[in-house]
Design a protein that fits this description.
The protein is α+β, with helices and mostly antiparallel strands. The chain has a single domain (about 5-120), classed as Nuclear Transport Factor 2, Chain: A, CATH 3.10.450.50. Helices cover about 25% and strands about 50% of the residues. It is built from 3 helices and 6 strands. It has helices at about 5-20, 25-30, 45-55; strands at about 30-40, 40-45, 65-75, 75-85, 95-105, 110-120. A hairpin with a 5-residue loop joins strand 4 (about 75-85) and strand 5. The relative contact order is 0.20. The model has no long low-confidence stretch (mean pLDDT about 90).
């Protein structure tokens, strides 16, 4: 039987690695067709997410991830949350809290919703 928490945490790790490598193909397969990402600079659909994550200049490459939690909602849905720290070009840090919602569509887990909430007073 599938360990859903392990599956969700593995997907998060795969996504972080794909982000570091600007792996557009990963995100094309990883996201549901109607995926949505809400980040401090706007709301993105799947096409925009894939383009951004495939960009070598993406600003979404975290330098540190901590406080990761996986929550199983049903046998076909779950949430992963964590705190991510990004280093800006000026070497300052920007901290966000991240939530990713996953759904099992057919036999495959997909990222369906992603949101970053900035830490208050994070610059």
């Amino acid at each position: 039987m599938e360990n859903i928490k392990e599956t969700l945490l593995s997907l998060k790790e795969q996504a972080l690695e794909a982000t570091k490598n600007s792996d557009e193909g990963f995100y094309q397969d990883y996201l549901s067709e109607d995926a949505v990402a809400i980040v401090p600079v706007g709301v993105f659909n799947k096409k925009a997410i894939v383009e951004q994550m495939g960009s070598k200049n993406s600003q979404f490459k975290s330098s540190k991830v901590e406080d990761t939690k996986a929550i199983v909602l049903t046998s076909e849905t779950g949430i992963v949350t964590y705190k991510a720290t990004f280093q800006k070009q000026d070497k300052s840090e920007y901290v966000v809290f991240v939530t990713t919602v996953y759904a099992k569509l057919g036999n495959t887990w997909k990222g369906v919703f992603y949101q970053q909430t900035p830490l208050v007073n994070s610059k």
